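ping. complex inputs:
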Amino acid sequence: MSDLRLVGHLQSRLQRALSLPGTLGVSFDAFEVIRVLARQSQDRAPRLFAAFMSTADAAVDGREAVTIAPSLPPLGVSTAPPDPAVGADLDEVIAALALLAGLLADRLNCAAADATLAGDRAACEEAAAAARQIRTLMARSDDSPGLR
Amino acid sequence: MTVPVFGDFLDAASGHIAAAVAYPGALTGAERCGVVRELDRMVSTLARYLGDLPLPDEFSLGTTARPAAEARAALDARIAMRRAAQSLRPGAMAVRGIRASTSQPVVGHLAAAATCLAAGRDLLYTQIADPPPGAEGSPSAWAKALASKPVTHALVSEIGRLAAQLAPWITRVALEGQASPAMPALAGLALHSAGRWLWIASASTEAAMHRQPSLPEGRLVLIAIPAHLPPASRPVTAQETLPELCDGVTVTAERLRQAAVAFTRRAHWSVQATSQSWRRDALASAITGHGSELILRGLARRAAELGMSPAVVTQLHHAAESLRRAWTAWRAVTGEWHTLSTGLDRPKA
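pong. complex structure:
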């Protein structure tokens, strides 16, 4: 599946995930897709290099946090890494990443609230913080065409 | 900051001893008790100095080889100084409960001399403390100098000179104090015995020096041995002259060198050194390098627009190119840490 369609696919998976293990599993994949897309986009505009590098780093933080959650399901059918997003418009990539990160933050916050195990709660809170950071990095300011 | 050297303490101790033995007045019994106490400290330190020297063992088993004559004399001096210290110990114990003010000049000078000698030995130890295994440049050049024959010889000579100053004076004080009821008999005997052993120590070192005179260069090096301590920090201030800046660079480099050696002695894996910290370091290096390259490219462009020297423009481009290579390497390192942390796959059940 190519670039931004994969992001859309993950968004719908996130919205459909009702259980904690399901949310954790999709979150792991989503963070990994964000990381790969950010790395693929980092050299496309010099002024956005730091933002994309930091986004990829935050995605690793989120993925690491999810990995230590006790309820993370074992290896199943994982989402394949996206194809190179060079063809996609950079603005679309940024918007898609911001949207996915926002959704991730919301779903992980809900998962943290519902978690019964302390390990799950801590993992979800930490991963949600990483998602919020990605959303902030990818958000546009109102008066600037670049990133905030 | 002036780094203290061994000569500072040796000269001060020698001056205090000279002042003490030149005191013209008679000592009361309580003052003699103070003398015994301070001599106990001082002679013990002198014995430790000689004990530190790299001399042949006094009772080497399984060997019939006799040490060289000067080494034999130094060994005799060491044994005699140890006997002097052992003689004073019971005397110092006997006067333990008797108050003797250090404001009395003789007692004060002896106390100061004992302190200076102890500080001098501590200073030498900063040079010969165990270096870390495999540490660069260890042992230090000063440590090697301290273990050298001319410097060892000079140190034996200095100890012998101090013993020669003390021995006749102690004997006189011991004889004068025999009738004093304020001084325990054991303390008087200790003084008497210590004086005799100090005579022997003095004579032994004199014999060693007679056989092989101490070179003046040895003493010059001995008194110049500095404390092996990091210089004080020199924070950068707004108004510094060029010489001050150069001096600050030297001081900081020396502090870093000593810190590096000290760190290797207790090196262990830092709890802060995690995959996350390495990843953050690589990220920060990549981003700052990338930003710096952009700045340098901008400067080079502007320099060309302003018609500045082509050499300046070229240098700016070279610097930018070097930074580009650096940050792209850091970017690659960041990518490796992304996968080294946990890998791309979820843990298996």
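The radius of gyration of chain A is 15 Å.
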